[in-house]
Fold this protein.
Amino acid sequence: MNDRTPAAVQAFRLYGNVTPDHKLEIELPNTVQEGPAEVIVFTQEHAQKGEQATFESFLHNLKASPRRIKSKEEIDLYLKTEQNSWE
């Protein structure tokens, strides 16, 4: 094994900031040694005004819609009717 082959891989979950000039600002723990590193970036997308309004509308309509819970007997009858239609 040479000096540039890592013996093990360490992973850290850290949070940083992307600046207006598209640079990532992040501070690593003191235990991280200098050298090459692989970086994977997850960004948070912001919903557009229309998208947010649509989702809020969906939730409002969901709450307003009537939901009736069926009894065991009603479910059994529905299933029996369905099975009979297959024959």
In short: The beta strands are 17-18, 24-25. The first strand starts at residue 17 and ends at 18. Residues 7-65 form one domain. The mean pLDDT is 82.
